[in-house]
């Protein structure tokens, strides 16, 4: 790997880690309802929201109420996004006169944005009006991320609740179950105090770099030279002008990165120069992908009263993330041997990026593209600044496998950490089996009920991915959409179901997935992946909240030591490897062998 | 139950107002006031007409212009109304055919050039609208453009250097040449030769 590749990897990780503690402790204040500074400005708005909504902010919920209100809120959001798309032709702020979006595509997109997946079956600049982007998609970018944060906050409260304490006992007695917070409060505070201010700062910075933010219609400019091409029927087409798309893009891009959403304003997402115009914009957009999820580990530590617990989780994430990131960067910088044989210069140097530049942008080159690809799939972000479909087989295996690990290496905001905590529960259980002792995590006994729920969390996504892929590659409607021949075509379908089945949203985009089959199948996969995980997590939270704390003894496995870190990372890897290596062997691994063989 | 239903509707409506209306409008107001040119698409004006955007590439195949990255948009390359990458996989024969064809086009435009071809000049960009090429890709074309315009190579090389940006802070991204800006400057140069 080249010097500048190592350098850019290092800078990224250093800046990311430097932000973990300050942002993490800030978010702990927000979840705990303590003063955080911004409440002096936005406090009146927060209280106004509760008053109009009739919400008593101090009243906590049991897990069933919490899950119910979250689901109701998500269903309403889903319906709203669907309705706006289906009627956008008749609504204002549609300067390009786009038609109403088809029913199946609207369903897919509504599910996609409400579940924080943000899979894009559509091309933004050719499909969505400014109003749809703002009022439909931008809103879900915020609230789906805030809902993820809320569920995480609830789960952490489950761990730290002390039912033996007097105040808690009185509240619990009133409802008869463990209490885990108020969904409306968590949702509102996460939106107002975490996502909104960060997005505002990032959006304005992005405008300064050249990201468009305008309600003007698309502009037409003269081309210096005529452009020639062929249309779908093979007829010659000549263009003398170029249409420059515009829109309120910066405001959406900021939150799409911060909220691990990833649905782009334009078709090619953050590869588009209007979404990601400079290496500096790229750096901060990329940082925004992981910064909240990384910092949440620290938030977790603060909230359970032992920051070492948070660092241990973060260390396990990095232990998996860094080697995969290096592998991806190495594979892409090595380039495509077939092109070298044709006399193309792929050697990285002071004057060219070199490597596999198909589907990548010249201003970024290799390392920012592979850093992005790894970060966006480790987190369930799914935005792209290069085309993963054109990565070398090993380079493309990394993002695919990071998704398949279950979006727990950083993962989505909130959802990543609660998924990782489910793995932590499995880890202490496995460790408990080895010594024949009832396991405990953070003082709470892990028993059959928690294990059942954690198993659901870990088993559902692979089930959806593998069954979906199997259906995709045997059905006619599934196969017709495949763009590349051979093993790579299989990888396209596997990637699509991995992405939807883990709420990532990125794609091997050659797959023509805007068809009724894929819109429906992937839509269902996204719904299962989001709620069949969030609900069992809340159930765990409720169960833990009602449990007394067991005092630490000589037999307790310390969960802040390197031993636990390695054990946790191993469990994640082993589950991910056992589940997916057969499928990966049929796709990227066989293709890598074909590529080397020439 | 009813109380929860009320909260659902009211909070959804209010958060929609905050994040879907107020927030984009505030960003627009700040963006258009402080960075009006960038917010509007970094457009370039020439003789009172719009000549393009600094950030969106244009297709070039004339001998007297620098060529940009190959573009996979349809129906024509650099169709900014419909951004797209090729999405061709690394072992797809269609990728190799496309690369071979681009190599042939570059060689027939400049038969005496036996330098190795920089990879970014024969691979299509992610967006299909990439405004930049590498310094190596510009260097590869300098002699051809100078000959077609009857300029000396040093003049063209100087112009390329003027339109080259280094790595941001010396660290981030890649050194690069803005193709549209460079070609506009070339046309200006030929129209009115600089006074020495």
Describe the 3D structure.
The complex is a heterodimer of chains A (598) and B (196). Chain A has 598 residues and is mostly helical. Chain A has one domain. Chain A contains 20 helices and five strands. In chain A, the strands form two sheets. Chain A has a two-stranded antiparallel ribbon. In chain A, strand 1 and strand 2 form a beta hairpin. Chain B folds into two domains: 40 residues; 150 residues, no CATH class. In chain B, 47% of the residues lie in helices and 9% in strands. Chain B contains six helices and six strands, in the order H-H-E-E-H-E-E-H-H-E-E-H. The longest helix of chain B is centred in the N-terminal third of the chain and has 33 residues. Classes of the chains: A mainly alpha (598), B mainly alpha (196). Strand 3 of chain A pairs parallel with strand 3 of chain B.
Give the topology, please.
The complex is a heterodimer of chains A (598) and B (196).
Chain A: H1 3-31, H2 39-53, H3 63-87, H4 103-114, H5 124-127, H6 130-160, H7 166-175, H8 183-209, E1 219-230, E2 236-244, H9 249-258, H10 279-303, H11 307-334, H12 337-341, E3 344-345, H13 366-378, H14 393-404, H15 415-435, E4 440-441, E5 444-445, H16 448-474, H17 476-480, H18 487-501, H19 516-545, H20 562-597
Antiparallel strand pairs in A: 1-2, 4-5
Chain B: H1 2-34, H2 36-39, E1 43-46, E2 49-53, H3 93-109, E3 117-118, E4 132-133, H4 135-149, H5 153-162, E5 164-165, E6 176-178, H6 179-191
Strand order of the largest sheet of chain A: 1-2
Distance between the termini of chain B: 83 Å
Count structural domains of chain B.
Answer: 2
Biggest sheet: strand arrangement of chain B? 4-6-5
Overall domain count of chain A: 1
Mean pLDDT reading of chain A: 93
Provide a count of the helices of chain A. Answer: 20
How many β-strand runs of chain A? 5
Radius of gyration of chain A: 24 Å
Number of DSSP E strands of chain B: 6
Order of helices and strands of chain B: HHEEHEEHHEEH
Helix content of chain A: 55-70%
Q: Give the largest interface pair and sizes.
A: A-B, 140 and 109 residues
Radius of gyration of chain B: 23 Å
State the shape of chain B: elongated
Give the integer mean of the pLDDT values of chain B. Answer: 94
- How is the biggest beta sheet of chain A arranged? 2 strands, antiparallel
Outline type of chain A: globular
Poorly predicted regions of chain B = none
The largest sheet of chain B is: 3 strands, antiparallel
Provide the β-strand percentage band of chain B.
5-15%
